[in-house]
Recover the amino acids of this structure.
């Protein structure tokens, strides 16, 4: 397998280890390589690793981030551990804490704010590198700790995982997958529904998403009717009125549309529905129940052979 590991630290690179993550990212890839796997490790360059003679510029990525396009440089990095291929990514944001500093010390009123921005860009850059086949065809993308967790956001195919379980275990697990899917989507909706706008606005501004924060300010003072009007005006004229009128049907269709992971997946879609505050909880719950029911119920009653 071609295994790519993304992490904030890498003990195989001088100055790349702060704590336990660095040890793990140094040692585990070597063991996997000994087992016959192709292993690649990627971390930020922090304004330092890319300047060493071991670093060779291989590519430049255009990464969409905070409403702009950021150029992130991709360097291969020669290490004493020749069984593993190492990469470092460079952008000025990665050195916000100082040249070579892996983590930043922020004031008490903004804990981890700088690191959140730094590693959000790192995650976006790794995702773009995967899309651009920088690492060739990736079989396993291993994300170490929260610093790399955002890489997963655009690629989490929740319902696809459920369908895979059904195909592996058969009709006996279909009901459990159905209930778990409802629970997951409803949890995402409730998080959006009851997430304080003030907290969300502050989070967006910490990530330098100024326009998104300003949009929250505009929405916060609107009544539900005004929000529906804003939704209608923001959509094409031919579908705006119909989308608003039949918004629960539209929600169900969006949950089921193939490839919806590109717009956040079912969880992202239901969270946005909750954030809008124009989808009533019980109606949203009923919509989710109906929207995710067809495939699990068909398999429950007729078996996997129905789709063969």
């Amino acid at each position: 397998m071609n295994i790519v590991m993304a992490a904030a630290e890498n003990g195989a690179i001088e100055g790349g280890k702060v704590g336990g993550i660095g040890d793990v990212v140094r040692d585990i890839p070597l063991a996997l390589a000994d087992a016959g796997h192709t292993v690649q490790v990627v971390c930020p360059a922090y304004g330092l690793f890319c300047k060493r003679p071991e670093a060779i510029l291989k590519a430049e990525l255009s990464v969409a981030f905070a409403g702009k396009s950021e150029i992130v440089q991709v360097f291969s990095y020669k290490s004493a551990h020749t069984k593993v291929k190492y990469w470092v990514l460079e952008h000025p944001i990665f050195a916000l804490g100082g040249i070579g500093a892996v983590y930043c010390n922020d004031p008490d009123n903004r804990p981890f704010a700088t690191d959140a921005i730094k590693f959000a860009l790192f995650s976006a850059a790794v995702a773009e590198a995967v899309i651009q086949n920088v690492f060739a065809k990736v079989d396993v993308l291993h994300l170490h700790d929260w610093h790399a967790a955002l890489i997963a956001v655009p690629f989490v195919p929740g319902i696809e995982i459920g369908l895979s379980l059904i195909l592996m275990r058969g009709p006996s697990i279909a009901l459990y997958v159905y209930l778990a899917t409802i629970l997951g989507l409803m949890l995402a909706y409730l998080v959006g529904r009851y997430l304080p706008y003030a907290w969300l606005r502050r989070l967006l501004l910490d990530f330098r998403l100024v326009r998104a924060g300003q949009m929250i300010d505009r929405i916060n003072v609107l009544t539900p009717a005004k929000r529906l009007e804003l939704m209608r005006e923001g959509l094409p004229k031919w579908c705006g009125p119909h989308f608003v009128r039949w918004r629960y049907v539209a929600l169900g269709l969006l949950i089921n549309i193939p490839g919806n992971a590109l717009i956040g997946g079912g969880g992202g879609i239901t969270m946005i529905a909750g954030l809008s505050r124009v989808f009533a909880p019980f109606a949203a719950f009923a919509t989710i129940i109906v929207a995710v029911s067809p495939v699990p119920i068909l398999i429950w009653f007729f078996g996997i052979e129905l789709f063969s």
Summary: Residues 52 and 77 are 9 Å apart (CA to CA). The chain has a mean pLDDT of 85.
